[in-house]
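Issue 218. Parser rejects a valid record. Input:
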Amino acid sequence: MSDPAHLLGVPMTDTLHAPLRAGRGLDHVVAAVRDLDAASDAWERLGFVVTPRARHPWGTENRLVQLDGAFVEILGVGEGAAIPEPTETAFSFGAWNRDFLARRGDGLSMLVLESRDAAADRAAFAAAGLGVYDPFGFERIAVSPEGEARPVGFDLTFTSFTGEGEEGEPDMGFFTCRQRFPENFWRAEYQTHPNTAKRLDAVVLVAPDPADFHEGLSAFAGVRDIHATSAGLVVPTPRGAIEVMSPAAFRWRYGEASLRETPTRLTFAGLRFGCERLGEAAAQLLAGGFTVADRAGAFVVADVHGATIAFEAAS
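Output the parser choked on:
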């Protein structure tokens, strides 16, 4: 994977902590949308293969973009959804995304890291002073392209944190995800995309002062080697990077149209994908009818249902 600071176009200037032995890599991101069909069509026009519609037991519905070890969950609220409300100890995935859509409209709503042990994640978050909630897991039946029904299951460990001096509810959600049946979830045919995207190289967050979030993100990712740059922060993980940029740096990197309003708190703004053949990615974007900006060697599409999407050459 390319060096995250190099991809930001700025030099490393400081290391805030000594490195830890291990960490939690990117698992997936939740892209909450009001119209699942329209959003799925947009992702297909970006050149991605999108999985068939699936439904959670409580009524949210999704379609996925699978990559090498990580995925994008395009999520909507289905008809007849019976979404449980949160309590003081129970986090409600469905309610969080329902309320996000009511508050913000379409956009990237949640950042999810991989889990090898849900109980260990919860204990680590508690020890670091992050918010912890009741354990939560579920299973459902997935139908393969061949029509075979297979169980898939997930253990989700929700957490929460705010930046220094920040008050009120956060504007994005965080959890880790442990797959119970990964052999039934990942499908090679869903990971071969016309745009040649192979990896989710980075998730890009925006905050008025990125340094305010170094402690929370360090504890969430289980990584102490956080780099400060002139653009903000880079949190390298075992799979992809978490980048936090100032609004000015984000606009400089991705264009004015990529951030129409200036966030007043931590906001999930963009995704960077590594492609095997960048020219084919550009051709897919143009054929899909998108306005494409060439920004520092990456092809950028602004406001794909609330998200800025960048395609760059995979190293």
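Fixed in the parser; the record now loads. The chain has a mean pLDDT of 91.
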